[in-house]
């Protein structure tokens, strides 16, 4: 840390941190919408439950395979509009076109039509994710500003999911009488519009920094197609970040799947509307805890924050399982003591989850900078992000399969849980395992990975010193 004063950081204006941090909402608009594609596939494309889950799993693996190609294209882009902004717009446009076809123009359809549209959607989504991930690395390299960026990304995602959850469970589903095609079409239009507005704001924020001086390599280095595989093989910190957050994502995506939410709140608790209200009630406490956690990350490093809040996440998730098992979930929302206890536990659990979400972006940016040092000057923002998302997607692709086969084992082979389904022992066990049991396993994997992750606050400072010195020397 003794050389920190000599480092020339690439800093941005405060308003740009807030405006740029909203960019991840674009991807999450489509991610949230595609949580409901199961219902569309079963209802409009006549695909069996287990088949659609296998398709979604295979498509996620394909998504990871396309990432190296897309990352190579992004890193080679050098237009008058910059490197990353054109690719973000392209990704958004492809996603919108395929969503319109999938939800409106091609229904009723068949298995082949659905697969083709979903594959094209994946390509568009990958363009956006890869380019926006690369842009995060060049936006700022100041550890404090990166910490703030990660914090506000998590805040905006939490706000989005709270609003989206409420919108679905308290507005759309009651208006259409369930998760039916007309409800899904309303969601598609809504989220495409929201994503478009957010994209305009984010592009405005990064306009001054998506320039050759920031996204080109230094010391005459160039990016090759093989860099992704070499990086994945040789960068231990990237490997550990993938293990930690890939396992977390596998578990949290399974837990947040629309079918799991319906099973927990629509069947086990018998109060589906409360799931939307829950996200609004817990939003402010969770954000406050997330601010506390990101302060720890900025002071002590991202590694320490992940370790502390993974342990706490395990404890709170276990307590929620016990409450549902012995406290009567049907009393949540009606009994004041049970509801109050649940809300306290869930706020703490959700806050821990948001802390881990907040630190992942700065950690990937730190890994990108460490790879620049290791390679002698290669700027691999998009490649690192694609490498991370490649492995992350392959791991998390199992989420749909885990959910689908779990419900199929208890009889849901041609349908998915809906309000009014009978509450049985098997559905209670499966719902609680997917909702809280899997995230506990994810946190355990994160703790193991952090034992081998070496980028603490001191080593990150040394990395920035090297980059600063070499930029000055050019």
TrEMBL record:
Domain of life per record: Bacteria
Listed GO biological process terms: carbohydrate transport
Gene Ontology CC: plasma membrane
Segments traversing the membrane: 45-62, 83-105, 111-128, 149-168, 188-206, 280-297, 309-326, 332-352, 394-415, 427-449
Keywords: Membrane, Transmembrane, Transmembrane helix
Gene Ontology molecular-function annotations: symporter activity
Keyword Mitochondrion carried by entry: no
Pfam families, per the entry: MFS_2
Gene3D superfamilies: MFS general substrate transporter like domains (1.20.1250.20)
Protein name as catalogued: Sugar (Glycoside-Pentoside-Hexuronide) transporter
Source organism per UniProt: [Clostridium] clostridioforme 90A8
């Amino acid at each position: 840390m003794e050389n920190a004063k000599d480092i020339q950081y690439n800093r941005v204006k405060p308003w740009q941190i807030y405006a740029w941090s909203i960019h991840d909402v674009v991807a999450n608009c489509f991610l949230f919408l595609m949580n409901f594609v199961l219902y569309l596939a079963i209802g409009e494309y006549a695909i069996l439950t287990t088949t659609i889950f296998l398709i979604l799993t295979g498509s996620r693996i394909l998504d990871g395979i396309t990432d190296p190609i897309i990352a190579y294209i992004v890193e080679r882009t050098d237009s008058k509009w910059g490197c990353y902004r054109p690719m973000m717009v392209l990704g958004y446009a492809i996603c919108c076109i395929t969503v319109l076809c999938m939800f409106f123009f091609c229904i009723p359809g068949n298995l082949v039509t659905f697969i083709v549209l979903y594959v094209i959607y994946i390509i568009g989504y990958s363009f956006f994710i890869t380019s926006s991930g690369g842009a995060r690395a060049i936006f700022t390299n100041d550890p404090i500003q990166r910490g703030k960026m990660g914090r506000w990304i998590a805040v905006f995602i939490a706000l989005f999911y709270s609003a989206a959850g409420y919108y679905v469970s308290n507005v759309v589903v009651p208006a259409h009488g369930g998760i039916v095609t007309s409800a899904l079409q309303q969601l598609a239009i809504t989220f495409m519009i929201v994503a478009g507005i957010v994209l305009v704001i984010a592009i405005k924020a990064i306009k001054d920094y998506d320039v050759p001086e920031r996204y080109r390599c230094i010391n005459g280095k160039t990016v090759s197609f093989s860099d992704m595989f070499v990086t994945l093989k040789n960068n231990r910190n990237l490997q550990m970040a993938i293990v930690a957050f890939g396992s977390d994502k596998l578990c949290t995506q399974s837990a947040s799947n629309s079918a799991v939410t319906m099973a927990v709140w629509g069947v086990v608790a018998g109060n589906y509307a409360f799931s939307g209200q829950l996200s609004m009630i817990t939003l402010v406490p969770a954000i406050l805890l997330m601010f506390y956690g990101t302060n720890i990350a900025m002071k002590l490093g991202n590694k320490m924050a992940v370790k502390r809040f993974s342990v706490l996440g395990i404890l709170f998730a276990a307590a929620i399982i016990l409450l549902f098992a012995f406290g009567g979930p049907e009393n949540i929302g009606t009994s004041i003591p049970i509801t109050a206890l649940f809300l306290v536990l869930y706020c703490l659990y959700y806050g821990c989850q948001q802390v881990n979400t907040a630190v992942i972006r700065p950690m990937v940016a730190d890994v990108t900078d460490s790879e620049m040092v290791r390679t002698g000057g290669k700027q691999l923002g998009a490649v690192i992000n694609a490498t991370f998302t490649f492995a992350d997607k392959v791991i998390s692709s199992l989420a749909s399969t885990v959910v689908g086969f779990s419900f199929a084992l208890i009889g849901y082979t041609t349908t998915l849980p809906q309000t009014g389904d009978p509450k049985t022992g098997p559905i209670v066990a499966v719902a609680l395992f997917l909702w809280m049991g899997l995230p506990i396993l994810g946190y355990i994997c994160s703790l193991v990975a952090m034992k081998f992750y070496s980028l603490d606050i001191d080593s990150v400072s040394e990395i920035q010193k090297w980059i600063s010195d070499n930029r000055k020397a050019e």
